[in-house]
């Protein structure tokens, strides 16, 4: 007989056995759908607390597990902080990093990667799409170029997961980061894809969960929610991405038409469907953001605010868009619920504010 542990949510006798079984089934179902969504095997998906942890696990995991072979890794100057700050920390404990410089549109190339790798390079990490300026990197090309080289390839796909069909084999990646909240799932849960057979040191040591790659009892409710979000994403992704792309181009076109001097940051064509990022010369960034906020338009400055002063972000600095010290940079992101009416309204408001705030 199973041990009696009270009643479950339906008033039925619950047991350790059935509770464990339910959790395992929920984890299995979520793992299967996440694996399917990126063309991976069930066993290659490791659940964790989100994109930040997945990036940390990839960088620490591969560099530490392969340290005897070499202490060099390659990444780019425009990665998310979850990669960049981890890379900087790895440098403080004896690793050597090369940070590839993007071109003015935020692109890095496969030949830059090939030039940077050495016999001691164990990892290359290049994000799929940039979260600030929206530039989409040629990951499949880089993956193809790295084939045959003795180095592992990681990509942070947090920004692209909900908008492009991803396949780890076509991309040629050994590790891939995804996060639930960017696909309308719960916050605080994500996954790292690790190709079977890749030596990786776990970030968390303890129990044997996630095939000994991430110790600690899984957050079953969050993971089940993640699985459900992936299921819905697979149904809606194509339609949503098309709508966002159309609205993005509408917004970009209207801003260019109405606001002289507005300069689009990021790649003109290879950019995320929902990303619009402009620089406005001669506009005070803080005043623009505050005024937009007061009108109900939620925008991001595309800059890092530190103790009252707005500094250009590391991304804008890397693409050379930070030199207009007297300008404002603005990121507007579209979602699946954005309407054409909201786009037109935003352009009206923005045009009015820019005219008012233009320094003479
Ligand atoms: N990587 C990129 C490109 C992101 O945009 C984000 C967050 O927005 C992260 C990593 C961090 O993911 P999380 O918030 O799930 O920790």
From TrEMBL:
Keyword Iron: yes
GO molecular function terms attached to this record: cysteine desulfurase activity; iron-sulfur cluster binding; metal ion binding
UniProt xrefs under PROSITE patterns: AA_TRANSFER_CLASS_5 (PS00595)
UniProt-listed Gene3D superfamilies: 1.10.260.50, Aspartate Aminotransferase, domain 1, Type I PLP-dependent aspartate aminotransferase-like (Major domain)
Start and end residues of each Aminotransferase class V domain: 9-344
Cofactor: pyridoxal 5'-phosphate
Keywords assigned: Iron, Iron-sulfur, Metal-binding, Pyridoxal phosphate, Transferase
Catalysed conversion reaction: (sulfur carrier)-H + L-cysteine = (sulfur carrier)-SH + L-alanine
One Pfam family hit: Aminotran_5
Top EC class for this record: transferase
EC number: 2.8.1.7
Protein family according to the UniProt entry: Belongs to the class-V pyridoxal-phosphate-dependent aminotransferase family. NifS/IscS subfamily.
Protein name (Swiss-Prot/TrEMBL): cysteine desulfurase
Organism annotation: Capsulimonas corticalis
